[in-house]
Design goal:
By secondary structure, the protein is of the alpha+beta class. The protein has one helix and nine strands. The chain is 32% helix and 29% strand. The strands form two sheets. A five-stranded mixed beta sheet has the order 3-9-8-5-6, with no helix packed on it. Strands 1-2-4-7 form a four-stranded antiparallel beta sheet, with no helix packed on it. It is globular.
Length: 189
């Protein structure tokens, strides 16, 4: 009887060792697969870094290289806009500072068409009784909004504060694209 028990225990031990070997091999394969995907991500990151370096080099070698301008902080009441001129691809930075609790309304980003008409690109609500965050806004072509080419973005703009007595902040979008953003400004309609 003791022999039978020993044989059973030996068989169980062999099965356990075989299972551990199979499990180890399976885990090793998973680790190798993960390392392969990490190398793939590294190659993707390297290619993106190379693209950024190529754009930087092209920018520096151009006749009119792009360097961001210093912030000017044009303001109206508690609202501030970081510059008066933007290139296509630059983001507008809007800063809200010490907004009164009773100040509520809508910020309108309007492209000025002429003395009597404008096109509202974006509306953003604000409420001084709630915490307000500073934010960036980008301007891009957008077929559903009817913005098909860069000519519709270039020109004079204003940031209006509907629901308040604050003066609008005027700014301009220039006919120059930030290097590396050219593909974003190809006609979409």
């Amino acid at each position: 009887m003791n022999q039978k028990v020993l044989i059973i225990i030996s068989i169980i031990g062999v099965i356990a060792i075989a299972g551990a070997i199979i499990n180890f091999n399976s885990t090793e394969n998973k680790v190798n697969q993960n390392e392969d995907s990490k190398f793939g991500e590294t190659n993707e990151i390297s290619s993106m870094m190379q693209e950024i370096e190529d754009i930087r080099f092209t920018n520096e070698q151009s006749e009119n290289p792009y360097y961001p301008k210093e912030r000017e902080w044009n303001s109206s009441g508690p609202f501030k806009l970081d510059r008066s001129e933007y290139l296509l691809g630059e983001r507008l930075f809007v800063n809200l500072e010490n907004t009164d609790q009773n100040t509520k309304g809508v910020m309108l980003f309007n492209k000025i068409i002429n003395d009597t008409h404008s096109y509202t690109y974006k509306k953003i609500k604000f409420d001084g009784s709630k915490p307000q965050n500073n934010f960036y806004i980008g301007m891009s072509l957008n077929m559903p909004r009817g913005l098909c080419n860069v000519d519709q973005l270039i020109g004079n703009w204003e940031l209006k504060f509907e629901g308040t007595d604050y003066e609008s902040i005027k700014f301009k979008v220039l006919e120059q694209i930030i290097p590396g953003s050219e593909r974003l400004y190809k006609p979409v309609c």
